[in-house]
Amino acid sequence: MKKILIIAAILITNNFYGQEHFAGLNTSSRVGILTAAMNPAELTNMSSQFEVNIIGASVNVSNNKIGFSDLTSDSNIEDLIFIGDKPVNMRFDVEVLGPGLAMKYKKWAFGITSKANGKLNIIDVDTKLGDAISNSGLNSLISSTNINNKNNQRIIGTTWGEIDLILARTFLDTQVHKFNGGLTFKLLFPGSYANLGADSFNGTISQTAGQGFLTNTNANLNFSYSGSLASSFSNFDDYTQSVFGGLNGFAGDIGFNYQWKDEKGLGTSINGNKSNKNKYRLNAGVSIRNIGSMTFKDNNNNSTNYTLQIQGTESLNLNQFENVDSLQEVENILLNSGYLTKTSSNKDFKVQLPTTLTLYTDVKLLPILYTSVYLQQKMNDDSANDQITAQNIFTLTPRLTLGLFEAYIPFSNSEISGFATGIGFSYGGFYIGSGSAITAMLNDSKQADMYLGFRWGFL
Predict the structure, then answer these.
(1) Interior CA angle at 12 toward 7 and 13, to 5°?
(2) Which DSSP helix (H) or strand (E) runs through 14?
(3) Lower Cβ count inside 10 Å, N or C end of the chain?
(4) How far is it between the farthest Cα atoms of the chain?
(5) pLDDT tens digits for 353-364?
């Protein structure tokens, strides 16, 4: 159990901290498959007649406990996570865009893309409970402490693959105005899933001779697992080897896009390069993404709800969980203790995708200078045991555009880790950037991210 609680922190120290995928790049006037992932209606604005996506990858992690300076200090990362009274929240997200193809034909645009997703999240975990389980010495306890947490404390890991079919159409196209709509139909291939939920946790943690004990406790627990994540949370290979399962889910995006065109052609770069065919004064859009769910089916599938009750002089030794790193082991220890009562169980279970509302506007300030505003609002409750999580994000991005070359600096505020700023570059089809690299270097940022990729547009 100790490994389960701190694995997200280990991933953070070995990877990146972050927020939204492809921050600053997704609102570029260089439109293609990547932009259509944000809003399918944008596909009719493609900068080329055809585009082939070769590869793209984005790694994002956010947390509300560990700062950049903590990574180079002598402090124990495991201890820092559980300092203070604020619940622990961490998000580790990976998105890989695989081969894809898009094309425009008259007022229509079509695309087919592939994507792999991986997530590991810690949600609203009580610091006192986390410290008691992960640190056998019970650093934060003198004798005993009471916990009364009404939230659903969750640890969730999941992987899945997608094949996305994109259709977009221009409904209005005049010299000044353009209006598009688009849909994405997603074929989902669930890979692996694990969820531990502890809802309405009420109990007492006490220390005796270096041992931690749980007494007078009531809680509602959920154990759900499928695929390789059932046996281990801490082996990163289990995430990479189980991304694509069988076809077992569907989802969709819907979006609309408006352009106020620049009829004077001010979108042409100062050196006369006309590679950017999107000449506008303003480009705005709205989309709702990931409307749908997927069903996990595997030989080791399990989703069970329990009530945990420890009463009177009864107690549970928390040191039993110190070297446990799988949900099955945690579940078996609790079952053997006799304090769990099963309330419901399912062999196969359905998981909801993280549905989000996206709003954005990109405005031309000067012939080579643009500024975009991006807002992402989650539409689901992260506390539900069958829900994959998302974040609320706001990003402001000034961008310099010189023909094939673009440079941009995204300023973002995310729900978990707060403010961050980074930098990114693109030239032709190649791009590389981060939404938080500058903040990570200059102050005690609690996030970082990195992305890079290559796509090829022609005609």
Answers:
(1) 100
(2) helix 2-14
(3) C
(4) 82
(5) 999 999 999 999
